[in-house]
Amino acid sequence: MTTSSVLEFLESFYIKYGSFIPLSESDVREHLKKESKCDLSNRSAQTEFDFTCFMVTYNKHTLRLEDLGTLEEQNWLNDQIINMYGELIMEATEHKVHFFNSFFHKQLVAKGYDGVKRWTKKVDLFSKWLLLIPIHLEIHWSLVTVTMATKTISYYDSQGIVFRHTTDNIMKYLQSEAREKKQTAFQKGWKITIIKGIPQQKNDSDCGVFVLEYCRCLSVKQPLLFSQDDMPRIRKRIYKELCDRRLND
C-alpha cells in the first residue's frame, strides 16, 4: 500500500463530498484494509501510511486533518483555521484588507506596542481600506474592525457581549503606529462604535464561524444576511475554501 493510493482515496472522497466532512480516520483504515487485504487494527500494520502527513499548506500556514476537524459539527475553531482563512481573505481582496493574526491582540495586551510593532514592519496599515482583528478571549471569539477612510473602530460580537477594553486597546495601538510611521492624520480623531443588530449565535460553539463570516462579508462589502441556521453550510464552505486555498465566489 503506497501513500499515493491513500491520497487518491482522499481526493476521490473530496470530489464526492466537497470536503473531508464527514471523513474519519477509520474510513481511511477501512479503505486500506480492503486494498491491501491486511489487518490494520494493530499498530505494526499501520506504519505503511502516516495519517499526519496529510496537510493543506498556503504561504506560511499549514493545516492538518486535526485542524480541519475543528470545522466539523459544533467544534470550536482553532487559531490555525482562523489565521489561514484570514490569509485567503487578504488574497481575495488583493491585500486591500489586512487580517491580523489571532495572537496579535493577546501579544499587544501582554507586551504593549513595542511587543507588536515589528508585526507591521513591511505593512502600511494606513493604506488599507479595512483592518480585521480577531479577538480571542479565553473561550470566545469576537471581531474588531478598522475602517481607515472614516477612522472608525467597530466591534462585532455574535453573543452581544461588549469587551470595551479591546477597542480601547486597538485605538491606542493605532495611535502608536501612526506616530511610529509618521502618519500625522491618524494620530487623533478615532471613534469607536459597537455594531448591533447583526447575526447572533444560538449556541456556545459557533462564535469562531460567525467571526470568519463577518470578516468574509465585510471584506467584500456584502451585508450580513446569514443566521445560526446557516452554520452547518458555512462550516462546510469554509472547509472547502481552505482545502482549495481560495474563497469561493
In terms of topology, how is this protein built?
Layout: H1 3-17, H2 25-36, E1 55-58, E2 61-64, H3 65-68, H4 79-92, E3 97-99, H5 104-111, E4 130-137, E5 140-147, E6 152-156, H6 164-180, E7 191-194, H7 207-219, H8 231-244
Parallel strand pairs: 3-4, 6-7
Antiparallel strand pairs: 1-2, 4-5, 5-6
Helix pairs in contact: 4-7
Written description of the protein model:
The protein has 249 residues and is α/β, with parallel strands linked by helices. The chain has two domains: 1-53, no CATH class; 74-244, Adenoviral Proteinase, Chain. It has helices at residues 3-17, 25-36, 65-68, 79-92, 104-111, 164-180, 207-219, 231-244, and strands at residues 55-58, 61-64, 97-99, 130-137, 140-147, 152-156, 191-194. Strand 5 (140-147) and strand 6 (152-156) form a beta hairpin. The longest helix is centred in the C-terminal third of the chain and has 17 residues, at 164-180. The two termini are 38 Å apart. The model is unreliable at 43-49 (pLDDT under 50).
